[in-house]
C-alpha cells in the first residue's frame, strides 16, 4: 500500500518546513438553548504538509467542533488557529470540508456539476476548465460513468466518493473530513478507507480527519491526536504511519490500539478496567456514549 | 412436549452451488398497453373530468331548467360561441394580462423581503410582522382603498393582486429557507459563497419545493382575487375582464354564458396547474429527487 520509508522522511523534514496548520491553545464554546457549553480547553497541535492527521476521541470531546473551527465556521473563544501563519477567521475554499451527511451534495446538481460547484462558486476556474478538472477527479474516484447522474440515484459510498472528488478538485491547502465514512456500512467503509489511502499516495494532500473509531484512526492516519472527553483536552499524540489496512489485526497494531484505548478510557481512574485485558475485535470497533 | 429442545444446534454439511447463466429468464418485463396508458396522469385526470361532465349532464337534464342549471352541452355550446366571437377570449386575455403583471411584481417583492429576512435580523422582524398583519387580511378588502388611491383601472387591481401573491409566497419561501439543512449551508459557505450568491445558488434551489408551493398558492389567491374584484367592481379594469363577463351575463340571465365564463376560470386553473406548475416540478424538484 504506502511506503513507510517515504513517510519517515517527511516526518523528519517537519523540523525544516513550518507546519501548515497551527492550532494554538484553542478553547471552543458553543451555545445550547440554556447555557454556554465548553467544548474544548486549550487544545494545541500542528499539522504538517501531506500529513494525514487524525483527531480521535469519544463522543463529546469536541473533535468535530475543532474541525469546524479550523474550517472557519466556529470562531475560537480563546487561542488562535493559523493556516500558513495567517489567522483563520471565516470559511474559505482553501480548506474544503467533507461532511458525514449524505445531503452535503446539492440534489439539484448532477455529479459533475457538484464537483464543479466549488470551483465555479469560488471563481477559481472558468466553466470549461472546471468541467475538465472535475472529470479528471471523478475518474480518479471511479465515477466517470456517473457524471450526469443526480445524487439521489447514487448509493452512500458513491456519494462519499463524489464529496471526496469535489474536495480534491479544489486542490485545497487542507482537506477536512468530519467522520466521512461513519454513515456507510462496514464493507463500503473499508473500501473507502482503502481508496482514500490510494488517493493520498497519488495526490499527497494534507488531511485533517475526525473519527471516533480507533481502527479507522490507525489505518487512515499517520499521526493521531487523542482528545479526552468533555471538555476536550489533548491526551497524547501518537504515530500511526507504520499501519495500514494490511496491518489490521497484527500484533503491533493491536498493541497500539490497546494503548490508545487505555489512554482514552483510564483517565483519572487508578485501576485498570477489565476491558483492556480482552483483545479488541476489529470487525467494527466504534464506541459511543 | 416430550422432546426437550437440544442445547446446541446440529452441525450440518456445507455446500456450494456453481451458478450457471440463466438463459431465457426475463429480468425485466414491460407493462401491458392498457396498464401503460393508465399510468399516464392525464388519462386518469381526463377520465375524472369526463365522469364529472356526465354527472352534470344527467343532473341538469333531470332538473330541466336552463335558467338555473344549463346542461353541460349547452354550456359547451355557449363556450364555443364565446370563443368563436372572440368575446370570451378577449376578456380572458385582459384578465390574464393584469394577473401576470401583478404576479411577477409579487414574486420580486417576496424575493426581496425573504432575502432581507435571511440576511438581517431587522429583515426577519419586518417580514414576520408584515406577514402576520397582512396574510390574514383578504386582498379584496383593500380594493375600495386601492380604488381611492389609484382610481379605476389596472393600477388598483395590480395593487390588490400583488398583496394577494406577496404574503403567501413570502411565508412559504421563508419557511423553505429556514428548512435548508445546515450541511448544505456550510458547504455553500465553505466554497466562499456569501450574500446574494449564497441565496441564489444554495438557498433558492434547496428551498424550491416550498417556493413552488408558495407560487401555487399565490397564483390561486391572485386568480380568485382578480375574478372577485371584477365581479364586485365590474369595470375596475376599464374594459372589463372575465369576472365582468360573468357578472354581465348573469344580469342578462344568460346562465349558459355564466357557466361558460366559470368554465373558463376552471380551465385556466387546470391548465396552469397541470401544464405550468407540474412541468416546473417535473424538471426541477422531482428530477432532483427532492420530492416524489
Present the secondary structure layout.
The complex is a heterodimer of chains A (289) and B (292).
Chain A: H1 4-12, E1 21-31, E2 36-47, E3 52-56, H2 63-71, E4 78-83, E5 86-87, E6 95-98, H3 111-121, H4 127-140, H5 156-169, E7 174-178, H6 186-203, E8 207-211, H7 214-220, E9 223-227, E10 234-239, H8 251-265
Parallel strand pairs in A: 3-8, 3-9, 6-7, 7-8
Antiparallel strand pairs in A: 1-2, 1-4, 4-5, 9-10
Chain B: H1 33-39, H2 41-63, H3 72-85, H4 87-119, H5 121-134, H6 143-150, H7 154-178, H8 182-190, H9 195-206, H10 208-232, H11 242-251, H12 255-286
Helix pairs in contact in B: 3-12, 4-5, 4-7, 4-10, 4-11, 5-7, 6-7, 7-10, 8-9, 10-11, 10-12, 11-12
Class by SSE composition of chain B: mainly alpha
- Stretches of chain A where pLDDT is under 50 for at least 5 consecutive residues are 269-279, 282-289
Distance between the termini of chain A: 34 Å
Largest sheet of chain A: 6 strands, mixed
CATH topology of the domain at 1-94 and 213-289 in chain A: Rossmann fold
Shape of chain B: flat
Give the % helix of chain A.
25-40%
Instruction: Give the largest chain-chain interface (CB within 8 Å).
Output: A-B, 24 and 22 residues
What is the C-alpha radius of gyration of chain A, as a whole number of Å?
19 Å
Give me the strand/helix succession of chain B: HHHHHHHHHHHH
